[in-house]
Amino acid sequence: MRKFPNIIITGTPGVGKTTTATQLIELAETESASFSEKIPLKHLSINKIAKQHNFYESYDSELQTHVIDEEKLLDHIEDVIADGAGDGGWVIDWHVCDVFPERWVDLVVVLRCEDTQVFYERLTTSKNADGESRGYEGKKLEENVDAEIFGTVAEEAREAWPEQGQVVELKSVQAEDVEENCERIWEWCKQWVKNNAEKQSGEEEGDGGGD
């Protein structure tokens, strides 16, 4: 049983996944000093992994995006996170979530930017986590805007993690939303660690209680 929770931060491109993941880890590093045990969260950017290892099958010219070789990607990630056998504490950052086995993840955070104008501007003019201008247009822009309007990622997340409480949607429109979201996720992490420790302690007592 892992010691710390694994979390996916997901959502349509442009909702602030990488920013939230980065600030959450910074918050954990700062706040762990006041908690009974350090919670060492670690960032796992799927986009960076796919790019670094060239986990691409092809390139979709219409959508202007690479098609990920999911089998190679998952094999690599399984080694990284030890398929639940390691300590955990991974914050997985990607716009897709339902390809990951349910057993790998304890919480799925779906970020939402329901202000269409703000979201449109992010996709057309803002920069991504690598500092590159998104500049979405045509079908790529249309499909991502539609996906956000209709909550496609949230729907996929709930189908993949049907247990109540495993999937949460958080508003990510203004800068202050990021800070509030990180605080909420951090509080959840602390509670998870506490509950997990109590559960393990109870199991150990149960194993040693009989002759």
Automatic annotation (TrEMBL):
Q: Enzyme class, one word?
A: transferase
Provide the protein name. Answer: Factor activating pos9
**Domain of life where this protein originates:** Eukaryota
EC number, UniProt record: 2.7.4.3
Species of origin reads: Neophaeococcomyces mojaviensis
For this UniProt record, give its keywords in alphabetical order, as a comma-separated list: Transferase
Q: Does the keyword Transferase apply?
A: yes
